[in-house]
Design a protein that fits this description.
It is a single chain. The chain is an alpha+beta fold. The chain has three domains: 60 residues, Integrase, N-terminal zinc-binding domain (Arc Repressor Mutant, subunit A); 79 residues, YebC, transcriptional regulation domain (Alpha-Beta Plaits); 73 residues, 2-Layer Sandwich (Alpha-Beta Plaits). The strands form two sheets. A four-stranded antiparallel sheet has the order 3-1-2-8. Helix 1 packs parallel to helix 3. Pfam families: TACO1_YebC_N, Transcrip_reg.
Amino acid sequence: MSGHSKWHKVRQFKGAIDAKRAASFTRLAREITVAAREKGSDPDMNTRLRAAITRAKEASMPKDNIERAITRGAGGGEEGEIETLTYEAYAPGGTALIIECLTDNRNRTASDVKHMLTKNGATLAASGAVTYLFDHVGVVRIPEKVAQANPLSPEVELALIDSGATDIQNDEGAIEIHCDPKDLAQVADATAQASLEADTVEFQWIPQTLIETNEEIGMAVAGLIEKLEENDDVSRVFCNLA
C-alpha cells in the first residue's frame, strides 16, 4: 500500500504466508517482464530492470524465474502479453484510490477489481476523476544499507539535481529521490554512477493532500487495500488516506 499509513495483519498459518509469497513472485516476475520489454533485457543498461531484479533476489525469487521473466520481456517464451492497467476509485469516507495492475488477462483483472471494490463499499471512478488529486512522479530509492555505505556528498547531491532530481529525502535511513517522470532514467543513471545502487526505480502517484478519517473508516479502507494487494494482478495501490 502506497501513500498512506499501513495496518499490518498477523499471518498465523504457513499456508497464508506461502500464498502471499507466491503472489509476490508473480508480481515481481511481471515487473521484470515489463521493465525488460520497455528498456531492454540487459540490466547493466536498464536501471528499472536492475532494480526489479534486486527486489526479486531480496525476496528469494529463484534465479530460473527471474531469467524466464527477462526472456518473456525480450519477446521470448510462450506466455501471453503482459499489459499495464490503471483503475481509479473512491473508497469509504471519500478517500481516493489509484490501482495499478500488471496482467495477462484484461477481462479477468477488470472483473476482479470491480468485484473487490463493490464488495467493500468502494466505487470505480471515471478516468481522470481521481488522478488530479495526486502528483505523478519518478521515484528512485536507495536502500538504507547502500546509503550508509555511501553517504551523499554535496557533489553527488549536485549531480543528482543536475540530472533532474527535484527532491531528495531521508526515509528512515534510506534515500528517496523524486523527479519529473521524463527524467527518471537519467536520475537513476546518476545514482548508479555515484555507486548508489537503487532497489526502486518507478513512477508513483503521490497524494497532494491527505484525508483524515475516523478509525472505523480508516480500517475499512486499509482492509480494502489489503484485499486488492493480495490479488496477483494488482501491482500497487496508491491512496490519499492519512
